[in-house]
Amino acid sequence: MSVENVHEIVSRIYEDVSSQSLERGDVLINTLHAIQDHYGNFIPIEAAEALKEVTGTPLSRIYEVLTFYTMFATHKRGKHVIRVCKSLPCHVTGGQAVIDSLKYRLEIDFGETTEDGLFTLEETSCLGLCGVSPVMMINDEAYGNLTPERVSEIIDEIVSREGSESL
Amino acid sequence: MAKIKSLEELMKIKENAMKGLKMRDSGKRGKVIVAMGTCGIAAGAKDTLRAIVDSLDEKGVDDVSVVQSGCFGLCDVEPTIEVHLEGAEPIIYGHVTPAQAKRIVEQHIVGGKVVGDLIVKRGEL
Amino acid sequence: MPVVENTVLICAGGACISAGEKSVKSVFEETLKKYSLDGVVRVVETGCMGACDLGPILVIYPEGVFYQKITAESAARIVEEHILKGRVVEELLYKGDSGEMKEKPQEELPFFTEQVKIATRNLGVIDPLSIDEYIARDGYFALHKVLFEIGPDDVVEILKKSELKGRGGAGFPTWMKWDLTKKAKGETKYIICNADEGDPGAFMDRAVLEGDPHTIVEAMTIAARVVGAQKGFVYVRAEYPLAIERLTHAMKTAREYGFLGESILGTDFSFDLEIRIGAGAFVCGEETALINSIEGRRGIPRVKPPFPASKGLWEKPTLLNNVETYANIPPIIINGGEWFSQYGVEGSRGTKVFALAGNVKNTGLVEVPMGITLRKLIYEIGGGVPGGKKLKAIQTGGPSGGCIPLELIDTPITYDNMKKLGTIIGSGGMIVMDEDSCMVDVAKYFLEFTVEESCGQCTPCRDGTRRMLEILEKITEGEGSMNDLQLLKDLGENIMATSLCGLGQTAPQPVISTMRYFWDEYEAHVNQGKCPAKKCKTLMRVVIDKEKCVGCTACARVCPVDAISGSVRKPHEIDPEICTRCGSCLAVCRFGAISKVSP
Questions:
Q1: Is C439-528 in CATH node 3.30.565.10?
Q2: Which terminus of chain B, N or C, has fewer Cβ atoms within 10 Å?
Q3: What's the pLDDT tens digit per position in C348-365?
Q4: Regarding the domain with residue range B27-122, which homologous superfamily does it belong to in the CATH classification?
Q5: How close, in Å, is residue C383 to chain B by CA atoms?
Q6: Mutation test of the interface with chain A: which of C206, C239, C314, choosing the one with the most A Cβ atoms within 10 A?
């Protein structure tokens, strides 16, 4: 991607987010979320550098924030980011089997992406859905009352939806 | 919407809205409330909502509205729905899959008979 | 009638008998015998179940699946498909178009009758996107009262009488926080709502934000009026996209109606709100880390004092309260302080929303007066532990709290009592654990969480918790020693005394607490290399008893990693190298052929 293009996009996003804010400065995290949504699940280095130009914030500070928060990624991730909860309530209600089935079915470990670029598997802390544990989120969708069978169904459904969309 | 400035205006909205909540003067004889918190959605409430709307459509029922609310706490039996029909006490159903939703529309909303095995609570929350 | 595992109830009411129940029963029994299941599955005839035109009817337990209009042929099929292979026969399921099934005696559940809904008063009742419905339930009347009838000092008095304490976990008197921020010097002040609910097992804030967002808008506007603030921020964790959506909508409509923004309700008081999103960091639930995060920095806690009330967001006086605390404000203003403090007990007045999760039947949210016993909460309201298992412990207060063992569940839940037991109420999350949980494993689980979420700023927390985790890992692998147990205690004390913020200061709590009540489990791990609960992977195996296995293949089908091999009707076997000890196979075997053993 061309440097000017990235600069333009980031500039626009930053203006957009700032204008909706009460305090113009320090909208860094909201801006990073918007940038990540735009580029699809990750923030390219070029965008971080463009942000430095646009806001005047030192690159070190932008990196500090980017690398601290677990929901920001600096490398490309799959189209569907699966975040499976591994906190205690999910653990005692069968979460282990769900995690095992995800790793087995997708043939990847935590932090990895499937070869076709469809899925990235990540572990996450409590998602606040303990009433329907075990749970996982795929991008912004939540799935609860999971079992290895249900996991299979959900993955199958996404794969077939992707397949028919690309036709 | 003109901004509210006085207690009287606030009271007026309250009265009108209460009627809506209790379905008086609304032209509808009932409503179905689907609990759509994230936990409900994670348990399949979106599909349940769609099934209810489709089923009501299929049966030609147009005097019962379908609305959403937040989770009311009994996450264990979600998806949950509450059926309010005029003149009857509200009934909360649990474990309402799309198939069961269809059953509730047919048996309760159209047929007027409560579906015993899915009841979680009778009466106001 | 107490229902036992593997029971088939066949309705033998008059109608079903005339529809051929007897022949169904005999075919059923014959088929069971054919597959040698007659000793394992009980067949019981019952009285009329009520769905007379759909008979013969039968119910298979433990699942509680109803089948209708059964014939001799379908009876045999049910044995072969459902009982033998665990596959429900969809077409034969009870659909009940005309007959009304006997109601389960559930409507007067203590789950509903024991609750006093104040913070959760509107959940499930109103459409969260309708400001009119919020107003119908007295919404924004409290704001009106504060702007036109009473003053900031009166509000503080009302809160004082209510004895409301912060519901986010710290339990600090709310009136005092508001008063301190009100009295702080400075023209510019801020209001913040902490919606970064990260405690495992807590989800009440999410429910309020998604189901009743206007209560937060109203409460924060009232707070702004009382302390003298102009701008407010709701810091919501990014894992709650629906909450963000609904709150945004609520703020928009509140502005349209004149309850937020310029000249609120026609007065010269102006206040506006903005949402700031988190990005996956539990530590941002700590108030100063949250402030840093809003300022666009790493969510690293600051040293306190100074407290946010005097120096907070951008160094200005800031009022920071939790979602549940705010949700209580409007009704308290309308009904008065004494109305709230009539509930609860001395030192712990009012109601609290508890989140029941884990091995408990009725998982969900309940709002009850403080002072209720744990026994009532878990057994009566929560419905007890499912699967016929015994309760082992209840974890309260998330990663900052400890465990309460079965022997102590008659303790009334109050701030003081929880402290005496070595735990805290915290945000109100109650994680119930049954006899299959290993308490050393649980402690290790919490420490994994803390190590992951530690911000890394101070050595005791960053390095200390990591060392504690390493020791716990050793212990759960059977490599620990008594020395290690002493080291855990020492490290724990040190970390608690020297960490910079609440996360570190309370991180060792689950370890200390489990050691206090389950010392024998720790000892068994280090002295005998045994895990009494048979949970720790290295110290147990899952095996199939070839004598009991009938080869139904149910276990092989649920194994998430294909570790079970065997052909139909032949005994199966688990490969211990592949097996992850998840326990799924155990849960489905109807013949008691699978068990956990110490190696």
A1: no
A2: N
A3: 999 999 999 999 988 889
A4: Glutaredoxin (3.40.30.10)
A5: 11
A6: C239
